[in-house]
Structures are given as structure tokens and as C-alpha cells.
UniProtKB/TrEMBL annotation:
Gene3D superfamilies tied to this protein: Band 7 domain
Protein name: SPFH/Band 7/PHB domain protein
Species annotation: Teladorsagia circumcincta (Brown stomach worm)
STML2-like C-terminal extension domain location: 146-207
Keyword Nucleotide-binding annotated: no
Lineage: Eukaryota, Metazoa, Ecdysozoa, Nematoda, Chromadorea
Length: 220
């Protein structure tokens, strides 16, 4: 007792080890008891050496070789493990559903964007086509007017233009007669000969008017 400060140092160390082990086990969760066995051994050695130092005793090594839990504690541990597994499974499932929803939403968003861009491109192409058609039509009309103007300035151009107008006048009535059963004629035209005479009169009238316009332009 004078050397160790305790009557039975072996018994005292044993009791201290058991008490320390219970204390250390109580600090961790049940599902980590078996995984933390090595750390438990280290913590128990440190606690024993700290308490047994006044006794002149030093613990070199401590090892938990096996653990036997009461049946109720084992059941509780098993329930805890199952609950943890279900929790993790639920988390994984929810994360999977969330990722699936995000992917689906992103897919719909991209599809909507692509559809919108396709409609926009189609409208642009249609507009460009219509604009190009208008441009070509306008250029064709401008070229036709330019040719007509050039022809009118040439010798005999006025007469040719007047004759063309009179010819179109007659063809218009012929076309109307083919399309319907009733032919509408201007006042005073009761027979085809009168129509031809009217066309020739129109031809002469247009020719005189054009000649006068050219004469006025030259006099200016």
C-alpha cells in the first residue's frame, strides 16, 4: 500500500478500465461501437494512466477483444441500423427524383427554345422570300417600263404602242365573251364591226396624244 497508494492495484485498475470503457462507449452511437473499437482502446489507456499515475502504475496496452450486448440493446442497434438504411435510401430516392425533374424541365426548356428558334427562322425565311419576290417583280416592272420608254422614243414607237393598246382592248372583250353567256359592250357597240371601229379610234386617239406629249417635251 505504501508503494502503490492502493490495497489491490490490479483490482483497482480492472475496475477503472471497466468504468472508463462504459464512459467511452456512452459517448458514441450504437452503430459505431464496433467500428470505433481501436479508438476506444486508446481512450481507455489514456484514462487509466491518468488515474493510476498516483498509484505508480502505468497501463501499456488495452484491448477490447469482444463485445456482448444485451438482447434489447442488440435489437435497438439493429433498428437503428435499419432506420439509417431507410433514411439513406429515402435521401437517395428523393435526390434521384429531384435530378429527374430537373433534367425533364431542362429538356422541355431546350425543346421550347429550339421550337421557338425554328419558328423564328421559318418566319425570317418566308419574309426574305417574299421580299426577294417583290424585289424581282419590281425590277421586272422597272425593266419593262424602261423598254417601253425606249421603244416610244424610237421611230414608229408611238404607233406600235397605240396598236398594242387597241389590240388588248379587243382581246379583253373576246375573253369576256368566252367566260360568260352575256357580253357587255360599251354604248353604241351593237356588232363586232363597231367594236373594231372603236378600237381603231382608240388607237388613233392614243397615237395623237402621245405625239402631242412628245412635241410638248421637245418644245420645252
Amino acid at each position: 500500500m505504501a508503494s502503490y497508494g492502493v490495497d489491490d492495484p490490479e483490482f483497482a485498475v480492472t475496475q477503472l478500465a471497466q468504468t472508463t470503457m462504459r464512459s467511452e462507449v456512452g459517448k458514441i452511437s450504437l452503430d459505431t461501437v464496433f467500428k470505433e473499437r481501436e479508438q476506444l482502446n486508446v481512450n481507455i489507456v489514456e484514462a487509466i494512466n491518468k488515474a493510476a499515475e498516483p498509484w505508480g502504475i502505468k497501463c501499456m496496452r488495452y484491448e477490447i477483444r469482444d463485445m456482448h450486448m444485451p438482447e434489447k440493446i442488440q435489437e435497438a442497434m439493429q433498428m437503428q441500423v435499419e432506420a439509417e438504411r431507410k433514411k439513406r435510401a429515402a435521401i437517395l430516392e428523393s435526390e434521384g427524383l429531384r435530378e429527374s425533374a430537373i433534367n425533364k424541365a431542362e429538356g422541355l426548356k431546350k425543346a421550347a427554345i429550339l421550337a421557338s428558334e425554328a419558328r423564328e427562322a421559318e418566319q425570317i425565311n418566308i419574309a426574305r422570300g417574299e421580299a426577294e419576290a417583290l424585289r424581282i417583280n419590281a425590277e421586272a416592272k422597272a425593266q419593262a417600263i424602261e423598254r417601253i420608254a425606249t421603244a416610244l422614243n424610237q421611230k414608229g414607237g408611238e404607233g406600235a404602242a397605240s396598236l398594242s393598246v387597241a389590240q388588248q382592248y379587243v382581246e379583253a372583250f373576246q375573253h369576256l365573251a368566252k367566260e360568260t353567256n352575256t357580253v357587255i359592250l360599251p354604248a353604241g357597240l351593237s356588232e363586232p364591226s363597231s367594236m373594231v371601229a372603236q378600237a381603231l379610234t382608240l388607237y388613233e386617239s392614243i397615237g395623237k396624244r402621245q405625239a402631242k406629249q412628245i412635241s410638248d417635251i421637245k418644245s420645252d
